[in-house]
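Researcher: Here's the sequence for the chain we discussed earlier.
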Amino acid sequence: MIHDVPSLAQLIKALQQVPYVASKNIYRVASYFLYSDQAKVEHFCKLVLEAKKNVVACPICFVWQERDRKCSFCHAPKRDRTIICAVETWQDLLAVEKTGGYQGVYHVLGGAISPIEGVSPDDLTIAALIRRLQETEIKELILATSQTPEGEATASFIASKLKGKPFTISCLARGVPVGISLESLDRVTVYKALSERRPF
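Model: Thanks. This is the structure I predict for it:
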């Protein structure tokens, strides 16, 4: 049926190229745009084009920023620039910020090392992070990567490049999430929670 409507088929094909749009939602997204009035769709497209034109990565920490403005993290006067939290993505940064408990600066790696997906250290901003650490006086580097094989490999790779440096390298605590029963967790999480237990 879709092949009988070439314009719709092209829209579906384009949406399939968007990594985070679940396949079961592609037709709903397409319907949303088709049912929306012309002005609304044009406004949406305009916003995407403006963001693409005006939003760039900070040359220091690689957080998104307006092209004509300074980074809101690197240049914030109340931020502790001696503590750097390395995260995989901008979304991870937002998760840390939502806690309200971190006042240092960030470094967005741009993903995690994944040989299966063809992502090597050279595809990330690891080299820029290491240069930054060499050029800046810091007290601590927090490796806030995901607790996945890829995240762990990325953190280990970075740590191996920084052996003997005069600052603390830390990572997020591992263990049982609040409100989750042990039986619903995978064995690696339970093992880490047990082996990295702390005094009560």
